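ligand=NAP
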Amino acid sequence: MSSLTNFIEPAIQASYFVAAALFILGLKAMSSPVTARGGIVWAGVGMLLATLATFLTPGMGNFGLMLVAIAIGTTIAWWSGKTVKMTDMPQMIAIYNGMGGGAAAAIAAVEFARGDVHSPLIAALAALGALIGSVSFSGSCVAFAKLQGIMKKTFTLPAQNAVNIVLSLATIAIGVALVSAPTPDATLVLAFFLLALLLGTIITLPIGGADMPVVISLFNAFTGLAVGLEGFVLGNAALMIAGVVVGAAGTLLTQLMAKAMNRPISNILFVPMNAGGGGDEQVTGTMRAVTALDAAALMRYAQKVIIVPGYGMAVAHAQHKVWEMTELLEDAGVEVKFAIHPVAGRMPGHMNVLLAEAGVPYDKIFDLEEINAEFATADVALVIGANDVVNPAARTNKSSPIYGMPILNADFAQNVIVIKRGQGAGYSGIENALFYGENTNMLYGNAQPMVGEIIQHVKAMG
Ligand code: NAP
């Protein structure tokens, strides 16, 4: 029996090590659209291995309950993964991420409730992980409710930032008392977790609109940190490494998104967009409506067309039609390129994923820095369901909520064609002077049928 135990313990540790290596390799592969699918499989295999190894842990019990929990979780995840729409991905990530934070906090809650945290260092790590995990859990639930449309408003308390500070200090003070108590006190444990959950809720309630994906990414980093800390508490190498990897990836992603929106993270958390009451420039002029035939002619006889896809293309599922149109134009001798803004759509890489799915080769897709200088040499910039990412107010209007955000310079093209359904604003809710530009042609309609009509006209032109 003891020889079996001697064998099992190193086998479990080796499995955790292999699982951690698979997480890292998977994450690395996810950094390119070409290898991303494989990366997800690698990381999934790592998770399966870590889960199986946990079942072998000496002293482990309650296998029935564990299997029921895994069955429920797997069924929900399988079903939601199969049915979720691409545009609903941010809220799905929010809720999954929140579950991770909640699970990390639950580990600490169980350890405190059982009185299993004997060393002051481990108790402090458990409490810190619990605090961060609880904030991530409740904050992610609020983010999910907002993005899903369950919670339609943002709520800001009077003296919101003061309330945040007082609540944070009170939670930390109770955490310190909990860690210093010789034996765990149930009331302290309960108060600590309730305050931490309240803190996550109160911080997230005022955040709205365009900032939400950045907050989700920040909570993702929090969850990673919380999981890593609880990994130390349990002495579980796979949890530690997975937590550190998720925490680092989430932090980098948060920084990238905040930079792409030119919004410091502190502003996102403590100065909600439009908190100053607008700053929306009064845009004057008229919008010129054109037909699909006009748009087709402009592009068919152009030398260079740059396509700017945005959230509207995703909603309309127009990417396949857009690629069909691109191939037709290229057959007619037109050079066509795609310009991708880092925060186009509703999640990082949103447009890249859709275009890749439609079969657009990667060498036709360009990042903002690579393509921006080329708009001035383009005959046509075709903006499909994009708004904020081509709003010149970001360059010109200092009081605009998006001032300073790097934008795609579509307005520098000789002609601009904008496909959108009507006068709807972008995610940040502000007017767009591009639509009133003298070189801008508005093609009103749902992106998919509109591009379909353009295709018919281009075909008819031969
Ligand atoms: P956007 O500013 O949200 O504008 C999308 C436009 O698409 C709308 O003006 C809408 O106008 C149009 N539209 C909607 N449905 C359509 C359809 N079926 N057919 C045609 N047009 C349609 O989109 P964006 O330019 O891609 O900018 C993304 C926004 O999300 C930015 O504000 C960005 O900061 C924010 N954000 C993104 C991320 C990210 O990671 N990607 C992260 C954080 C924040 P109509 O209603 O008139 O059709």
